[in-house]
Each structure stands twice: as C-alpha cells, then as structure tokens.
Description:
The structure is a homodimer.
Chain A: H1 27-36, E1 38-42, E2 47-49, E3 57-63, E4 66-71, E5 77-83, E6 88-89, E7 100-103, E8 107-113, H2 114-123, H3 125-151, H4 154-171, E9 179-181, H5 186-193, H6 197-209, E10 213-216, E11 220-223, H7 226-233
Antiparallel strand pairs in A: 1-8, 2-7, 3-6, 3-8, 4-5, 4-7, 9-11, 10-11
Chain B binds a DNA duplex through helix 6.
Amino acid sequence: xxxxxxxxxxxxxxxxxHRAVCARCDGDELAIxxxxxxxxxxAAGETILWxxxxxxxxxxxxxxxxxxxxxxxxxxxxxxGLLLPSDFIGRPGRTEVEFDVVATTELTLCRFExxxxxxxxxxxxxxxxxxxxxxxxxxxxxxxxxxLLGRKTAREKIATFIDMLAQRSxxxxxxxxxxxxxxxxRDQIANYLxxxxxxxxxxxxxxxxxxxxxxxxxxxxxVVDLLALRTATGDDSDGGMxx
Amino acid sequence: xxxxxxxxxxxxxxxxxHRAVCARCDGDELAIxxxxxxxxxxAAGETILWxxxxxxxxxxxxxxxxxxxxxxxxxxxxxxGLLLPSDFIGRPGRTEVEFDVVATTELTLCRFExxxxxxxxxxxxxxxxxxxxxxxxxxxxxxxxxxLLGRKTAREKIATFIDMLAQRSxxxxxxxxxxxxxxxxRDQIANYLxxxxxxxxxxxxxxxxxxxxxxxxxxxxxVVDLLALRTATGDDSDGGMxx
DNA sequence: CGTGAGATTGACTATATTCAACCCTAGTGG
DNA sequence: CCACTAGGGTTGAATATAGTCAATCTCACG
Lengths: 243, 243
C-alpha cells in the first residue's frame, strides 16, 4: 500500500492498533484517543521536527519510515534511531527533541496535541505502561546499535542492516521471499551505520559479488543466502541456525 | 567517602534520596520501600549480573560505578552504559538483562526483590513516573553515545569522555578544581569509547603533551585547559563559552 | 623489595576515508 | 518517443587513522 493512498480510519481498524501507544487501551480509552487524533502526511525527505523546536504534538507513526539524527557543527551526522510503523514520537515531560526527525519515505502520522495527551497519560495507566514499554524497546535497540557502531566492521554493519530489514519483512508476515525495498539512500544508510556512502556501496557490491544478496534498481535487494548473511553479521557463530 | 565505609542508612538520609527511583515518593511510600530494601556490596571487577541470567532483584546504585556491556562471540566488547549513583538496574516487565552488569569500582546497591517491586510500581504512580524519567534519561545518554561511537575521532572521543567526567565532578558540587579520578582502567575506557587500549593511552598522552590535561598516577587526571578540552570534543565551535 | 597487572611506546599494517572521475537511470521537457 | 539532465550510485587510487603485535616500563601491592 502506498502511503499516499492512506485515508483516515477508525482506531479499531488501524493497522498499528495492537502495537502502538494505544495497544493496551480498551474501548472507552480508544474512544477518547479517537476524538483527539488528527492524521498528517509528509513527503519523503521532509523534516518533521527540527532539533530544539518546541514540541506541540506527539504522534504515532502509522506507516512509512522516519529517522532521528544528530548533526555536528562541521556537518558529520549520525542517525540515532529509525522509526517504523507503531513507533512513537515525543515523550512525556519533554518540550523539545534534541535531534532532527526526518521522513525517509512518504509517511503518515497519527497526531495528538501534546498538552492534552500528557494529561491523558497521567489518567490512563494503560497508556503510561505502553509508553514505558516503547521507551525500553527503543533503549534496547539503541544499545544494540552502540555495539554495531563501536565494534563492527563495515562488512558486518552492512550485513546486520540487511538482516534487520529481512527480519522485519519476515515478521510483518508479508511475502516470505526475501525481496526487500531499502527505505533509504546510500547516504542515509551510511549515516545510520557510521560509515561513508562509498564504503556502503562497496560493501553492498562485495556481498553481491559473493552471491549473498542480489541488487536490482536502486532500492531493491534480495537476500539469496540468508545463512551466509547471518554469518557475516558477526552476531553469532552458527549463522542463526536456531531460528 | 570510600565505599567500604558505607553502612545502611534510613531513606530520608540516603545520598541518592532526591534522584533515585524513590525521588518522588512521599513519606508513606518511602516507608514501604524502607521495609523492602536490602543493601549489598560488590568489589571492583565483580560481575553483578550476567547476560541472560534471571533477574531476581532490581536495585538503585547508591555509590560507586558500574558498567553495562555487550560481548561478541569473538571477544570484542562494547560498553553500552555507565551507571552512576542514583541509576537504576532492572526494568519492569523484563525477567533478564541482555548485557553484563559489572562493578568497575567498589559499589553498593540498594536492592528490592523484583516481584514485590513490580507490584509496587503498578500501585505507585510516583515510582512508575520516576522510572519512566530514568529510562528516558538513559535513552538520551545512549543516543549521545551513538554519535560519539559512529562519528567522532579517537581524540574527540577521549576529550568527550574527560569532559563528561569533569561536568559530573562540577555538578556534584565537590571541589571545583578539576582534579578527577578515572573510575576505569584504560582497557575499560577503550571498551566504552569503541577504541583499543593503546589508542586510549596515546590520546591521553597527546592531550597531556599539549598541556590540556595532566596525568599523575594511574587514575588521576587534572584538566588544565578546560576550553581547549571542550574544543577538542568536537561538540561545539565556541569551546563551551556559554557555560 | 619484588612482582605482576596495567600502561606506555614503537614499528608496521589494515581498514575505511577522501578525493576524484565516471556511470546509471528515473523523471523531464522538447 | 527520444534526448537531456541531475541526483544518486559506482569505482579507482592515494591517504589517513586507528588497529595489531611486540617490547618495555611503572606503579601499587603484598
């Protein structure tokens, strides 16, 4: 489904109903959220929030992909998070974010005004609990990424990145052939992995030459040899035989 | 104060009373925690929790320093968090940790059995809210560290590390000369910064040669030129003039 | 005072970056 | 319908930065 096809839906039919911040809500709670929400679309490349900008809305990502990134004075940038459908933007008790939030694909947000939402969080343990879980999931993801950034080789970084996309594709139950669409340009992938875009390109083509993946077009990847890919991530010695 | 001198205290007199998970608790809530808590000491180098081990206790770090680290099959390790006094170990809804928790100095924990504590969290919004804040603080710290790991040079990493220690020393109100004690060995610092211990050593001595810091003994550092140190972190162009 | 873990230093190497040229290809307008 | 163009991607050569391996030093401790 293309993002531009998206139209507002009732919460009960929302594709992220069971995973977003509203996951634990019962009917009454959902009705309140329903009355508060507004949808907003963004085009690929558009900045959703600038670092330091006051945070008037919080939101759930309905579909599409967004990135969180930090930039140094001299222009070096590092992506510090990747937001996928059901992920949450904004946090209780903070009035601004200290990174940029950018749409890497077309995307749709389900937004709530921050102030009323914060009031709702206090009154609704189901939402507070789910927010806590989401924050802890992000923390786990950040820590895995720290290991990647600090200790993995370029090859392992690329393999880990592709494997992550593959896992997600399999988990989301869609076609279980391993054809993936890259949600980012080489440059953005480089910023995510702490590499340069040239190194990203070289490693993609090295894996292709070895027959681990195949590439076609700019954003299509197919995983040809999942076992070899797993081995190349450096994460485990058995190439993921247990999964 | 040496850790070994620490003896159990009443919560009201606890050094981390206003920053730990109990920060928002009123007298009644504090009385409940008081009745549940037990103190436990660890020696420097001792492992507090192994990755994957079942989590029977959660705890606040009363004093000393602990580290969270992940290790790859081939032995490469990356520290993914540094725990300072008032930081919390363990999390609601998870029965194990997926990193090792190690004491880098002598330290004292204020422990609670996990099950009763989780029950208390549900019944006590003051604790749940504080846990959320602590989790978000950790998330911010992790993201800053991702920028460091992914994009900073060895020199910038070392300067950032020393600056962080200096900030903390100033903040904790202790003597405002900039003499610091390193809470870790070169090897541990290397694991924190995504470097090798040789590179850590070389960069420390380069900064010393340039007169930015001075070193004496194994763990004593003095910041001689804070402005130069700030500049060397790469974080801002003005060397921190506004602070 | 001796010992050993931790730290330093040096020489060499490897990996990824930098700089530069060139190549696709999707989208545009003639 | 085709040629043009620009943004993204690839490839190569030279370089730089941090890693590796190895020898030596030094401090803190018994």
